[in-house]
Amino acid sequence: MSIPAFGLGTFRLQGQTVIDSVSQALALGYRHIDTAQIYGNEAEVGQAIAASGVPRDELFVTTKIWTEHLGRTQLMPSLEQSLAKLGLSQLDLVLIHWPSPAAAVPLADTLAALQAAKAQGLTRQIGVSNFPIALLREAIALCGPGEIATNQVELHPYLQNRALATYARSQGVKLTSYMTLAYGKVLADPLIVALAEQYAATPAQLVLAWAMQHGYAVIPSSTQAAHLRSNLDARTLRLSAADMARIDALERGERLVNPEGLAPAWD
Questions:
Q1: What would the mean pLDDT of 12-34 be, rounded to a whole number?
Q2: DSSP letters along the chain, please?
Q3: Catalytic residue among 30, 39, 167, 178
């Protein structure tokens, strides 16, 4: 199964809140769920999946390996713990959440462990997150073409990562956009508001449709059923080439996620 273009993110959702969000999303028809070890909610996500009654082969579940577990001997045990928490025997996609800070763990070691996990059936696909071009190029060289399924990065109208997007596309690596709504900042942009009215859509639907029309996967999160349902409708919204270009023109290099000690040398 290729990475679904539309999914549910669970960043910052904890306890009953994430159970309710995932449960409502699955009931509405979401089939792509994105979590991570560092989110501290894999068990709750798994609980919601188990209670949903959705057949496993209809779901696409992603988790991400935290930086403390990137070592050749640490990665597999940590992934097995994630699987146990999620109540799954196999992930659909496992990502390196952030490059190893200061390259403390060689990328070759981490990718070798990830490929071993894939060979053992613990995950169907592997990928990376927050990788600039230089590290993505290194990952592709280490794994071979076609092995890196995606690079999950911050990407929204104010930060479009165009050089990275062009390179990833040239290598057959799909980009997954997180923070597609820029913490909600783009939803108040006058152009986005005006275009949303023109298309009889919400600003969120418009921005999500823009990202998907560029070929990116999106994983917005929400705790409200109305927003979850509304966001899902972005899948059928089609923007004109002229309006796509108008949104493209909002680019201003505004990066919102840049944690000290974790962030690589961005492009």
A1: 98
A2: -PPPSB-EE-TT--HHHHHHHHHHHHHHT--EEE--GGGT-HHHHHHHHHHH---GGG-EEEEEE-GGG-STTTHHHHHHHHHHHHT-S-EEEEEESSPPGGG-S-HHHHHHHHHHHHHTTSEEEEEEES--HHHHHHHHHHH-TT-EEEEEEE-BTTB--HHHHHHHHHTTPEEEEESTTGGGGGGG-HHHHHHHHHTT--HHHHHHHHHHHTT-EE----S-HHHHHHHHGGGG----HHHHHHHHTT---------TTT-----
A3: 39
